[in-house]
Recover the amino acids of this structure.
């Protein structure tokens, strides 16, 4: 197949349909799949219902359950490795969940190469972050509850990736949303945290409209919501239905993964404790949208229009997030912008179809390592700086926090794609694949890489280099071992994560799930491509050095800045748009409607009552209490009756 | 014997009673007027009974008398009570039971 | 003659009501409360026994039938099918919970504490009768009789505007009841001309061929009465006033149990007696239902009073229930019936927990609160779970029913589902806004001395929460009893489930699909 550089996206990889999922029944270690979910779920139940009795050892239990899940996941992974490629799908039906006429859904699990990787990521990185949290949350009186929520999150996320049908996936999908809500708003006494939590949940619910309608459409079309059943017949549905399904799931994915136009909640979500930002809003939950797209490959493969939409959303978001990242002074928000942008990369790759699925997942994994690493590093910095998040108050921290600095640097090199580090391999592949399909998309991805290099270098320079800018009463100190050891482990993974691509392993591993990709010929050789990317990255780094590193960084952000900076600081007016378009008109509409109900609907009711009351007020005057007038009316009535009778009889 | 005189008498009595009820103020007079109307009716009933040659009308007249007697008992009691408290037997003074 | 289970089930709470009313009245007496609680527990036990003995495949069962007024064809006839049993169980579960939660709410009312609990038990007995009646005349009589206890409960023990609210509720209900009476009389006329002679027995009425126009008029009479009861837009305005004025326990009995009579009646009598008319009315009813969903939710967002807010959420939820009933397929109707049960649980939890909150602070206005979570974490936690169940979070029981309703609506006509599904975003808004404004943020001085929930309060709420979670993950005990009844209803209406466009073949892995 010869593809020119500028192929219409609709022509993507129709070469072969997506693989049909055929799950074998679970035996051996796989029969314990349910336990992987049950352990953290049990942990959450004990911690949240146990009350103060569990305060003393709650955090240890929280770590233990996730560690147990990790051990099981690892065993299952090894067992799966031992199988032939075509046998690597294991299903386990726990029980029948919903039965209503034709609508039957089992609570069933599907363990295949895709889920296997996610399981390791969630329980592995999740476990590391649990350990880190022991130190980070040490002085918080509600630490036990924090671990309860974290366990709840892990359990829900595991349900999400182990689901064998869309409805169980939805269960996990909302479960992680709930955990995210609880954890963003963990410091509830802060109004900003409570507002951010609510915002995250509501925006996610907008995405859930897509999810819910998607599940319904799938059921109405196929009579089932199971992945296996649908993947077998997906191609037979009409184009319109498949495109609608693809777009609906894209809406869901955009909500969960903070993609344009539902991106606005992620930056606010940084109100949560930093381990939460690392686990939920960087490594795992926000990537669920990418998982959904990859998991639904059998739909997207048959719906090219929906795929194009995915690519567009991904491309726009990767630039959107990157631009936001360049202007933020809050270290966590800068990283959040970066997360948004990196997920944009994944989404873009997932939209490319068979050519990109594996790279989307590959980048998802490496990003999980290095972004978690950097978030935890940022947490360590905040820990040292008395919870100050403004990078303008940092500077010259590399000597004070040597371990944090070194591990953070590993993450930094990984994300900008320094040759040899994990991000280099994964991002390079995506840019390559993007150019393989469409020039504009490729250029967007390339530009994104340059901006990434710029904002990450800016962040590094402002935090760890230059003059010290912190105030007198702050005494930076390195974090305790329980926090630095997780950093070291994650740093190692950030460096070595690229090893998964050795011998094309990750691509071949995912092949049974996402299908085999034809190799694309690029206009330029991959080596040249890599070189171009590296040069662009170098330019980004140099630019940051010139603009930030060589200048004095003011302690207060300068106000007279260009229009572009102002726009980037305001999150490209995403919030303003939502506010002007939905919130304020919505508020007004609700107000009007309330008045309408009070005065219109209820007014009609009370008005009727008042009318009857008024009429009675007039009529009751006849009851004047004089017996003789009563007698007169009686007589008049009798005469009238008589007259009528006579008239009738005579007529 | 023709029934007409009886019916005419009954009508006259009834009219006298009705006019009395409408024009007089004294509760006792009013009461007597009501009685007169009732008796006018009785007279008509008995007359018709005779015309039709069955006893239905007479039976009904007895019923009316019994009810009238009971009514007189209750009514007089009320009038006497009102007179005791208000020193007046005028029905126009007893107009409290109104809107 | 077998043991008259249903009569006993209905008689026990009524007997309890009489007994509690006759107990000596003492200002601090716990005796009437304990006796009332005991009677409600016995009723629950009986209902549980009936539930365990219920055979899902046997259709209408435990029937009792005696001629009552032969001239009208009225019978004292009771029987249970899956839909009725679901609501009987709901009633039996909720009343002890409400009694326990309202332990002190009956003190200081217009009448004695005894009467508060006596009316509650009376209401339970009458409501159970309504759900078990298989004779239209008996149903009508009990339907109207339920107004009496609830009128006294609102008017005697409520808040500031209780007289207004009680009267409004009564007039609304009587108006509906009057229309229904007209239809009931119409049914007499229709049945008197049929081969059965005058009869009100459901089993006989369903076999009568009705003239099209007559059927439609009679249907309208029933439907309007049920729509007022449910309540649907635009005849809903009595509910917020009643909920705001009544004690939390009264509101629960009103919204969670009594209002279900409306939707129950729509299935049992609306669809059962007038299948043709029901299908004729479907488009209008569905539009009204979807409108109720959105209208109730939007108004809930705009409320500042907690009970009024919850009342409006119920308008929205009842919209879902009616939607599911009238899409005329099994997913929708199983969903609706399940929804009645789940909505009963979740709204009860929400009313009761906010009732505890309001009682502590002495204000029902959201703006009077802030930062309660800090001083009363258990209360806040239960409030959140109840709220999440109200917004149909997956994993909690209302999700299953709401999703089934939406699936049913989607398969009927996807437009309805597209609009109704907007309700899930609005639900998130009204619940989470309320939670944010009352529970989070800095603690307001007025709530600082607030106590957390006590043992009695937690143990009243615990069964509800346990059921909500349990049925969220395992709704099967209820769906198995509901489904056959729903299939029977659909058969009466004469509709069947639409087939999928591209049916997926069974048999990948061990997924077996052995549908009968």
């Amino acid at each position: 197949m010869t593809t020119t550089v500028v192929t219409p996206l609709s022509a993507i990889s129709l070469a072969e349909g997506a693989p049909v999922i055929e799950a074998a029944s679970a035996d051996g270690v796989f029969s314990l799949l349910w336990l992987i979910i049950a352990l953290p779920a049990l942990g959450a139940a004990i911690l949240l219902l146990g009350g103060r009795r569990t305060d003393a050892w709650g955090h240890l239990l929280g770590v233990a359950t996730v560690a147990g899940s990790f051990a099981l996941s690892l065993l299952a992974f090894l067992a799966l490795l031992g199988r032939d490629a075509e046998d690597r799908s294991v299903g386990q039906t726990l029980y029948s969940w919903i039965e209503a006429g034709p609508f039957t859904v089992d609570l069933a699990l599907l363990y295949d190469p895709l889920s296997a990787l996610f399981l390791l990521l969630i329980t592995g990185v999740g476990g590391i972050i649990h350990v880190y949290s022991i130190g980070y949350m040490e002085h918080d009186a509600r630490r036990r509850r924090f671990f309860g929520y974290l366990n709840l999150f892990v359990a829900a996320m595991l349900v999400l990736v182990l689901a064998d049908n869309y409805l169980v996936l939805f269960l996990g999908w909302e479960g992680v949303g709930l955990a995210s809500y609880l954890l963003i708003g963990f410091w509830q006494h802060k109004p900003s945290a409570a507002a951010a939590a609510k915002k995250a949940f509501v925006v996610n619910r907008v995405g859930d409209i897509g999810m819910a309608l998607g599940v319904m459409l799938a059921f109405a079309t196929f009579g089932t919501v199971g992945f296996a059943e649908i993947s077998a017949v997906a191609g037979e549905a009409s184009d319109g239905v498949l495109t609608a399904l693809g777009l609906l799931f894209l809406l869901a994915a955009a909500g969960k993964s903070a993609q344009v136009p539902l991106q606005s909640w992620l930056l606010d979500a940084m109100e949560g404790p930093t381990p939460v930002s690392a686990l939920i809003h960087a490594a795992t939950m926000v990537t669920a949208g990418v998982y959904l797209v990859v998991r639904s490959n059998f739909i997207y493969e048959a719906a090219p229009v929906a795929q194009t939409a995915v690519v567009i959303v991904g491309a726009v978001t990767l630039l959107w997030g990157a631009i936001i990242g360049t202007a933020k002074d809050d270290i966590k928000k800068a990283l959040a912008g970066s997360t948004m942008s990196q997920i944009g990369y994944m989404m873009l790759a997932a939209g490319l179809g068979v050519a990109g699925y594996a790279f989307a997942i590959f980048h998802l994994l490496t990003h999980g390592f290095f972004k978690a690493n950097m978030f935890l590093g940022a947490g360590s910095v905040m820990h040292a700086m008395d919870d100050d998040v403004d990078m303008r108050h940092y500077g010259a921290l590399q000597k004070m926090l040597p371990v944090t600095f070194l591990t953070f640097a590993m993450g930094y090199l990984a994300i900008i794609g320094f040759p040899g580090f994990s991000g280099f391999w994964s991002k390079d592949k995506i840019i390559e694949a993007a150019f393989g399909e469409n020039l504009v998309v490729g250029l967007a991805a390339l530009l994104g890489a340059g901006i990434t290099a710029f904002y990450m270098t800016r962040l590094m320079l402002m935090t760890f280099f230059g003059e010290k800018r912190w105030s007198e009463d702050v005494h930076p100190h390195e974090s305790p071992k329980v926090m630095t050891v997780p950093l070291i482990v994650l740093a190692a993974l950030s460096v070595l994560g690229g090893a998964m691509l050795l011998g094309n392993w990750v691509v071949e591993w995912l092949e049974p799930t996402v299908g085999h990709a034809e190799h694309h010929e690029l206009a330029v050789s991959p080596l040249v491509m890599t070189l171009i990317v590296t040069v662009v990255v170098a330019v980004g780094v140099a630019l940051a050095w010139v603009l930030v590193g060589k200048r004095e960084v003011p302690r207060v952000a300068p106000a007279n800045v260009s229009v572009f900076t102002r726009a980037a600081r305001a999150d490209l007016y995403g919030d303003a748009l939502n506010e002007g378009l939905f919130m304020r008109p919505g508020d007004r509409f609700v107000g009007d409607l309330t008045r309408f109900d009070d005065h219109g609907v209820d007014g009609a009711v009370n008005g009727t009552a008042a009318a009857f009351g008024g009429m009675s007020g007039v009529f009751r005057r006849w009851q004047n209490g004089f017996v003789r007038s009563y007698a007169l009316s009686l007589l008049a009535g009798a005469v009238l009756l008589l007259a009528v009778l006579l008239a009738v009889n005579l007529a | 014997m023709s029934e007409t005189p009886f019916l005419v008498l009954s009508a006259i009595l009834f009219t006298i009673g009705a006019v009395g009820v409408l024009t007089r103020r004294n509760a006792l007079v009013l009461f007597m007027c009501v009685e007169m109307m009732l008796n006018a009716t009785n007279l008509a009933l008995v007359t018709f009974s005779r015309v039709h040659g069955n006893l239905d009308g007479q039976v009904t007249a007895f019923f009316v008398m019994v009810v009238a007697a009971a009514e007189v008992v209750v009514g007089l009691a009320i009038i006497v009570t009102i007179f005791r408290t208000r020193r007046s037997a005028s029905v126009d003074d007893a107009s409290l039971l109104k809107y | 003659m077998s043991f008259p289970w249903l009569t006993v089930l209905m008689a026990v709470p009524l007997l309890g009501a009489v007994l509690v009313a006759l107990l000596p009245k003492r200002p601090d007496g716990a005796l009437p409360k304990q006796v009332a609680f005991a009677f409600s527990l016995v009723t629950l036990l009986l209902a549980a026994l009936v539930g365990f003995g219920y055979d899902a495949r046997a259709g209408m069962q435990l029937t009792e039938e005696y001629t009552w007024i032969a001239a009208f064809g009225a019978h004292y006839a009771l029987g249970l099918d899956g839909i009725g049993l679901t609501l009987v169980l709901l009633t039996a579960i909720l009343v002890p919970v409400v009694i326990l939660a309202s332990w002190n709410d009956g003190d200081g009312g217009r009448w004695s504490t005894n009467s508060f609990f006596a009316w509650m038990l009376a209401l339970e007995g009458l409501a159970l009768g309504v759900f078990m009646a298989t004779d239209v005349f008996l149903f009508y009589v009990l339907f109207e009789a339920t107004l009496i206890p609830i009128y006294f409960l609102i008017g005697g023990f409520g808040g500031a505007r209780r007289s207004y609210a009680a009267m409004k509720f009564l007039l609304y209900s009587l108006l509906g009841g009057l229309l229904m009476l007209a239809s009931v009389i119409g049914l007499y006329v229709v049945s008197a001309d049929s081969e059965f002679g005058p009869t009100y027995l459901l089993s006989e009425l369903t076999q009568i061929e009705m003239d099209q126009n007559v059927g439609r008029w009679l249907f309208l009479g029933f439907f309007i009465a049920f729509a007022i009861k449910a309540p649907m837009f635009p005849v809903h305005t009595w509910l917020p006033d009643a909920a705001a004025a009544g004690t939390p326990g009264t509101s629960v009995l009103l919204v969670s149990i009594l209002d279900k009579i409306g939707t129950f009646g729509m299935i049992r009598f609306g669809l059962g007696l007038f299948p043709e008319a029901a299908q004729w009315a479907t488009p209008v009813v569905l539009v009204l239902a979807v409108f109720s969903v959105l209208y109730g939710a939007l108004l809930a967002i705009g409320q500042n009073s907690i009970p009024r807010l919850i009342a409006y959420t119920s308008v929205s939820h009842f919209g879902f229930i009616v939607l599911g009933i009238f899409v005329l397929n099994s997913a929708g109707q199983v969903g609706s019936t399940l929804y009645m049960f789940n909505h009963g649980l979740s709204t009860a939890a929400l009313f009761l927990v906010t009732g505890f909150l309001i009682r502590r602070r002495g204000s029902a206005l959201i703006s009077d609160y802030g930062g309660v979570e800090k001083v009363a974490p258990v209360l806040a936690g239960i409030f959140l779970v109840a709220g999440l169940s109200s917004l149909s979070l997956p994993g909690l029981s209302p999700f299953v029913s709401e999703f089934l309703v939406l699936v049913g609506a989607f398969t009927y006509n996807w437009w309805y589902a597209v609009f109704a599904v907007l309700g899930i975003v609005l639900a998130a808004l009204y619940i989470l806004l309320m939670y944010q404004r009352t529970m989070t943020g800095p603690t307001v001085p007025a709530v600082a001395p607030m106590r957390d929930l006590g043992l009695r309060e937690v143990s009243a709420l615990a069964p509800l929460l346990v059921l909500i979670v349990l049925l969220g993950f395992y709704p099967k005990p209820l769906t198995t009893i509901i489904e056959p009844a729903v299939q029977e209803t659909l058969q009466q209406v004469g509709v069947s489930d639409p087939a999928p466009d591209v049916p997926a073949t069974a048999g990948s892995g061990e997924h077996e699909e052995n549908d009968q």
